[in-house]
Amino acid sequence: MLTDVGRVRQRNEDMADANARKGIYVLADGMGGHPAGNVASKTAVDALIAHLVGKGTRDRPTKLRESVLVANRAVLQLAETDPSMHGMGTTVCVLWVSQARAYLAHIGDSRIYVMRDGELHQITRDHTVVRELIDRGELTEGSVEAQRIGHILTQAVGLEAHVEPDLGMMPPKPGDVFLMCSDGLSDTVPDPAIAAILRQHTDVKACAHALVAAALEAGGHDNVTVLIVRCEASKPRKKKGS
Known about the structure:
Blueprint: E1 2-4, E2 14-19, E3 24-30, H1 37-53, H2 60-81, E4 90-97, E5 102-107, E6 111-116, E7 119-122, H3 129-135, H4 144-148, E8 166-170, E9 177-181, H5 183-186, H6 191-200, H7 204-217, E10 224-230
Antiparallel strand pairs: 1-10, 2-3, 3-4, 4-5, 5-8, 6-7, 6-9, 9-10
């Protein structure tokens, strides 16, 4: 994973963390223009990971949903203790990977992509006004109006008592590469360019640096964070006595 404050912002409000042993990866983007966005993103990420690795139901979709609700309460409760933090919020996206399943949850416009067989696919749907208007046929992707209101979210963690994350699941294939990113990447680097960088770099660290560099080269108007997970082929188990 890699994060950069960018070329314009004075503070990095993105946060990413992982428990690789458990296959848990989390990314959050504190909302710019709101107080303490960096506190919101860190609070949410910490709460999510703590809940996912803690005891409780073994049903992963249920636990994923619970973890986002726990994170939402954590951000709201912290904001209640300090007036300077009122109104803080954050996006979140979560990837929970095993050999057989990749589960995901998200709120906001941070994204999860998968590169499979050389093709890049966005597997989350942005929670934005623009996305809803485009889906209803009332707005054209890439239009001036879409760019003007592109950052208005329909959901975020920490702003309201009730949130409902989108949940998903897909069986991973050996060679799949999952990319989690804040909009500091997806807003500045087009998907075809992201795909080209993912194809060019097999090393995840080199790939992360190349993606962040591309966002900075494109202006770096926002914090940019990327988290890359490569699915390797499972090793055959040794037979007892061999």
